[in-house]
Please model this.
Amino acid sequence: MLNLHGEVPSDAEKNISILNAEKHFLKHLSQLATDFPKLRIVLEHATTSEAIEAVTSLPSNVACTITAHHLWLTIDTVAPQPHHFCKPLAKEPKDRKALQDAIRSGNPKFFLGSDSAPHPTSSKSPSVVEDSEPSPCAAGVYTSPILVPLVATLLESFGALDQLEGYVTGHGRKFYGVPAKEGQELKLRRVTDGKKVPGAVRGEGGIEVVPFWAGKALGWEIA
Model:
């Protein structure tokens, strides 16, 4: 099993940046799939329509994870909000639609990967120290506390709620060869009171983390 973060390094001379690094990686993915036909390969957290097309066209030993946050984010919603900054960077609306269409299709090559990262607020919005450069913003969003209800809410928004089980559990288990166990079922129920995701959660030592979709209402919750 080979799981890959599918981007090449940025290179100014070749005009490669975080905006197109995934596209430039896809030729390497294709070559790996050809050279190692018995190796199961997972392209992690795809963000582009080109990645969806590539995985769809490659043999059955290649699959792909899609995160919940990339089903909602675009570059326009990342640019003004450091808590939306993640890698791979969310791309254009057409790319988001390709991700959504892949889930809606029920193609078992595509399944959930959370890529959840609980970075403290201090590392997402770092302070500026006098006479020094600001620290880089940490890449990653925190979805773990709300992941499955968030997925259900998002899938329902683009007409793919019937694909929830396959996307969250079935397709991934089949590809990895991990059978479900008795008693591992998870049930959801619809939320009618518009309960919102908290603006922040606090852990040990008072460390604050802002969850994805803070302040927004989820349509589902774990029963």
Notes: The chain has seven helices and eight strands. The beta strands are 2-5, 41-44, 62-66, 110-112, 188-190, 201-202, 208-209, 220-222.
